[in-house]
Design brief:
heterodimer; A: mainly alpha; 2 domains; 16 helices; B: mainly alpha; ABC transporter involved in vitamin B12 uptake, BtuC; three-stranded mixed beta sheet; two-stranded antiparallel sheet; 5 strands
Chain lengths: 403, 424
């Protein structure tokens, strides 16, 4: 009744000889097969996105009744203008590539948070709130501590980790002690965190002097993340931290004993309990670590982004995009890296699309949701294209509302 | 499947858990009593008096009000809460712990209102009326949830269904009138329900994942269309406000009248729906079959019930209810569309479903409790008590966490909730 299954995937097996890509991604036995499904999912999502763009312009729709031919022509040019801007803004130039990497960094950190939760059978929808709490803690340390950068930056990041860890761990503790489902507690945690940060950023000491809206003072220069490719490109070492954490999370999940307990409890809590694992502790710890990773994403948003100030909007929608990143990456740390790069490209391209083609950036959210739907239900893609995409067991973590 | 074997240890466990819970709640009540006595009773001057207005300016019978000394009122309330707390700590009447907590919270809220309204007046009936209004969407969300979960499908996408319903309702109502808006919203909710059912039943996608992705899709799509269409054509974001229908005679009863009998048709339909769903689920053959599918799909299948068809039907039907809720939100409560205007209310509805133990009347009662916390936040915020407004705004969300954390006891979900059914 309370059984949970997160199917083991290929990445837990020892690396096998094969192509470079196979070894790098650790997924599947054939690059073509493992990339077929995500590629087709993306193509299908882009096609549906094009239809949405074409049929949401009021002027063109009015024209459709008078002069259908001209209307269809305008639709086509609008779609191509939007998608060209999307492409140029994501990979079209060195600066676009830097913007893609810049957008990918928080997605990667928060995506790892959600993925770690999935592996332990927990659905962390609270990355958004954990980012806010992490960002807030990092802001405190970034403003009030004065140290040389070489110590200040790690300390501020650590504060961000701790802030998110407390907020995520609280949801884990509630689940472990009372059975409160983390889906509801973490979503409520998001709202509570927003109101909390709205209030605390108006208190003297944190608020930017001379402002009356909730915005913090700027972090001191020693707490700001240095840029990798010089001041002309916005991508910071936050990305490198994320990439390093891909390997750390992979090691924790597949090489450490606590990671084994995460996965065991995630697949079947009853079995874990009979094997002598402290399920309550494992659940709390998994949520705390997941929260910490999201907290780092929040710290990245205040430490790596001009004007280096905290506000209730510091997380943007990264906490929610992180869910799609983790799902697309199939909760595999390396998969999360690729998914974060893809959605980072969509985010960077979406900004360009909004600027150049006046197509709202919210389209990117629609594309992400569609991609994830097609990846989660491969049957749809198989039926459309009549291909034999690899048949993987769907992720199942639903346990109902009980304990 | 192993119910019989675990029956005995569970009983033993529950007794000790009950005692622990009584201790925790005893401590909570003591803390509440301390706040009531220390802040609410002694934080006001001795001769301050509070007035609770029991009639609205529009009522037929005017001037019904209740004036009392603020400090004496809070002191009495504090002592009563203290007594309840001692009772818990001495482990008496363990089976009435929830009742004690309920009474304690009610006294606490009344003392809070008396304190906030010291030397001024406060419209108690106004707050109760807005409790009913804000409970409607929550109740409809909870009814959607239980309609799906009674047949074994978890619907996390209620939030997205409400949001999409609100969006469609605003556009169609602005263009073609209220009824078109309501009907369109219901169809939109049902379409998202169908998508959830299709993903969950046909492709066995994890139901919580499918629901969350539907929410993301709904947020993206409505925000995209709002900034592309509604910002261009603002006349499409101006639905006619739905007016109240005053029920003759009943609406003139003091307190009860303005609370329940002077509302838009949405409120009356919701109340009727609660009764209808209760009757449907527990008094008809359809309901028995639906519950069988949610408890033991294999047995239901063996008896010739088409499990998948029942699931499709209920999930789509639940979508109709959620779409109706979205229409209420957009046409009666707010009267325009704003990006992300639902603000987590669909999830509060899910919590209300759990709190209401998957029962229609329970959903209504839970909806009223959550609606009350929302109305309280709003009204106390207006009174200006020095409590930062952000903390008042947190109240419904904190209340939700407390509820699902089982401070009010554990409920049992339908046994096959969340399990895909694959016919052998």
């Amino acid at each position: 009744m309370t059984e949970t299954r997160v199917p083991e995937e290929h990445e837990s097996q020892p690396p096998q000889p094969g192509t470079l890509m196979t070894r790098a991604t650790g997924v599947g036995t054939s690059v073509g097969r493992s990339l077929l499904l995500p590629t087709l999912a993306m193509v299908t999502a882009l096609v549906i996105g094009a239809i949405i763009i074409a049929f949401s312009d009021i002027d063109i729709l009015r024209l459709l009744f008078d002069d259908p031919g001209a209307a269809i022509g305008q639709m086509a040019s609008e779609v191509s203008r939007a998608y060209r801007a999307l492409f140029r803004g994501s990979v079209g130039s060195v600066n676009s590539l830097s913007e893609t990497l810049f957008a990918a960094a928080p997605l990667l950190l928060a995506g790892l948070s959600v993925a770690l939760g999935f592996r332990a059978g927990l659905f962390n929808i609270g990355a958004q709130g954990q980012m806010l709490m992490g960002g807030l803690a990092a802001t405190y340390v970034g403003i009030y501590v004065s140290l040389p950068g070489i110590i200040h930056i790690p300390l501020t990041l650590l504060a961000g980790f701790a802030g998110g860890m407390i907020w995520g761990g609280l949801a884990g503790l509630l689940k472990a002690r009372t059975g409160a489902h983390e889906v509801i507690t973490t979503i409520m945690g998001n709202f509570i965190a927003v109101f909390f940060i709205q209030w605390i950023l108006t208190t003297p000491g944190l608020q930017d002097p001379g402002r009356n809206n909730p915005v913090s003072a700027a972090l001191s220069g020693t707490a700001r993340l240095p840029r990798i490719f010089g001041s002309g490109y916005r991508v910071t070492i936050g990305l490198l931290i994320g990439v390093a954490l891909v390997f750390v999370v992979h090691w924790v999940l597949y090489r450490s004993s606590i990671g084994f307990e995460f996965r065991a409890v995630g697949s079947n809590p009853e079995a874990g309990r009979y094997a002598g694992m402290n399920v309550a502790l494992v659940v709390t710890l998994a949520m705390a670590l997941a929260g910490g990773l999201a907290g780092l994403a929040g710290a990245n948003q205040v430490m790596g982004l001009e004007p280096y100030k905290a506000s209730p909007a510091l997380a943007g929608a990264v906490g929610f995009d992180a869910i799609t990143v983790a799902l697309l990456g199939r909760s595999n740390p390396v998969g999360v890296l690729w998914a974060a790069l893809l959605f980072g490209a969509l985010a960077a391209g979406g900004r360009a699309m909004q600027g150049a083609a006046q197509v709202p950036i919210d389209l990117v959210v629609v594309l992400q949701a569609l991609i994830v739907i097609f990846v989660a239900a491969p049957g749809i893609v198989r039926a459309i294209y009549r291909v034999k995409a690899p048949d993987e067991k769907p992720t199942q973590l639903t346990t109902g509302w009980g304990s | 499947m192993d119910k019989l074997e675990t029956a005995t240890p569970e009983v033993v466990l529950r007794t000790s858990a009950g005692e622990r819970r009584a201790t925790i709640i005893g401590v909570v009540l003591m803390a509440l009593a301390a706040v009531v006595l220390g802040v609410f009773a002694f934080g006001v001057p001795t001769d301050a008096s509070s007035t609770f207005n029991l009639s609205l300016p529009t009522d037929a019978i005017q001037g019904v009000a209740w004036t009392f000394n603020s400090r004496i009122f809070s002191a009495v309330a504090g002592i009563l809460i203290f007594a309840l707390g001692t009772d818990r700590l001495r482990r008496r009447h363990l089976e009435r712990t929830n009742l004690a907590l309920g009474i304690g919270l009610l006294l606490f809220v009344l003392a809070l209102l008396a304190w906030a309204a010291a030397d001024s007046s406060f419209s108690l009936v106004g707050m109760l009326r807005s409790t009913v209004i804000s409970s409607i969407v929550i109740t409809l969300g909870a009814l959607t949830g239980l309609t799906c979960e009674r047949v074994g499908v978890i619907n996390i996408g209620i939030e997205g269904q409400l949001l999409t319903g609100a969006f469609v309702a605003v556009i169609l109502s602005s263009a073609f009138g209220t009824w078109a808006g309501v009907a369109g919203a219901m169809v939109a909710g049902a379409l998202l329900g169908a998508l959830l059912a299709w993903l969950a039943i046909r492709f066995a996608v994890d139901q919580i994942i499918a629901g969350v992705v539907i929410n993301i899709l709904a947020v993206g799509l409505t925000s995209f269309l709002a900034s592309r269409v509604l910002s261009e054509a603002q006349d499409l974001n101006a639905p006619a406000r739905v007016s109240s229908i005053r029920i003759p005679l009943l609406a003139d009863i003091p307190v009860i009248g303005p609370m329940f009998f002077d509302h838009t048709f949405f409120v009356y339909v919701t109340l009727i729906l609660v009764v209808a769903l209760h009757y449907g689920f527990f008094r008809t053959r359809w309901g028995l079959r639906a519950r069988a599918v949610g408890e033991h799909p294999k047995a239901a299948d063996t008896l010739g019930i088409d499990v998948l068809k029942v699931r499709y039907r209920n999930v789509i039907g639940g979508g109709l209810i959620a779409g109706f809720g979205g229409a209420f939100l957009a046409l009666a409560q707010i009267s325009r569309f704003e990006e992300n205007m639902t603000g987590g209310i669909g999830f509060i509805g899910l919590a209300a479903m759990i709190f209401g133990r998957w029962l229609p009347f329970g959903a209504l009662a839970a909806g009223l409790v959550f609606g009350f916390s929302g109305a309280l936040a709003q009204k106390v915020g207006i009174l200006g008590t020095g409590i930062p407004s952000e903390f008042m705004l947190m109240l419904p969300y904190v209340a939700t966490v407390i509820v699902v954390a089982g401070l009010v006891g554990r409920a049992r979900a339908p046994a096959a909730d969340g399990q895909p059914y694959i016919k052998q």
